[in-house]
Amino acid sequence: MKSLVLLLCLAQLCGCHSVPHGPVLGYREPACDDPETEQAALAAVDYINRHLPHGYKHILNQIDSVKVWPRRPTGEVFDLEIDTLETTCHVLDPTPLANCSVRQLKEHAVEGDCDFNVLKQNGQFSVLSAKCDSSPDSAEDVHKVCPDCPLLAPLNDSRVVHAVEAALATFNAQKSGSYFQLVEISRAQFVPLPASVSVEFAVAATDCVAKEVVDPAKCNLLAEKQYGFCKGMVTENVAGGEDVAVTCTVFQTQPVLPQPQPDGAEAGPLTPAQGSAGPALSPAGLPAASLVVGPRAVAAPPIPPPVHPAHYDLRHAFSGVASVESASGETFHVGKTPKVAQPSVPAPEGPVPVVRPCPGRIRYFKI
Fold first, then answer.
1. In Å, how far are 229, 249, 299 from 207, measured between CA atoms?
2. Which of 39, 209, 215, 342 is 20 to 30 A from 63, comparing alpha carbons?
3. pLDDT band at 285, cuts 50/70/90?
């Protein structure tokens, strides 16, 4: 009888040691085109466009991979890799992203490559960390599609700067209202036939009257910001001069939003909306002016610094990369996924074909 009792106790003891302590934690891998995954990716793209200080809005092109981690005490973190494409809408343009056209291959398209951690909590998505960069399509690929199409030109090239100045002067000469100052040179291309420089740039209204300006340096931006976006073409003519053509779209005036103040304090200047990365810094190190596009506040891009590449890289859109804590207590960063052991799942004895539901579909085209 004593032997039987001892045997039962040993069996119970072995059974206790065979059960792992606590829940088995790990990640799940939904399909890249799963509706929930796409919601997280769209939240990431919205984050990009809300924090871009320069250039053009981006749109989702493909979801490359996704892992979903449980997060203590509630919620889940979507670890995403996504590809985006540049649109033709400038970041100052209040046009909804859904109504923006994608920059086509023959126009020298630009692709973004991003890593995101997106928190889903109580049915809402919010970005925890982000890291992006972007690059134009290669010259070889552009010329495969369109052998005679122009490529992107450096934004600080003297010919580009001259074309922008000429186009802006022409625009102001045609106006009877406010004088507009240059905010940013956004895009440029050298067109071979006829020899021309094509430019795109952002402008802002000042307190000066266009036809009365003597010294543009004395003009100040309006308190209620009004921005515009221009496309210009400066073409050499046979007489040795140049022809200038320009069209500008002036956006609706953006009202100054009062800053929330403690009781008894006076209203202060506009501050960025909750969740933004804070005001952008100008080359001189001073905060740039702020504006509201639609329901949000963003930092107005400063005048370009002395040296520029051919496009505004998404790498400079975010001030830093935050870290996220997983449910297992490990710390991981965007672009680095920890390995999680799952002892409850036995390893297969032979090779097993695995069908990965990623990467997802290409919505437009692949660069």
1. 18, 19, 20
2. 342
3. very low
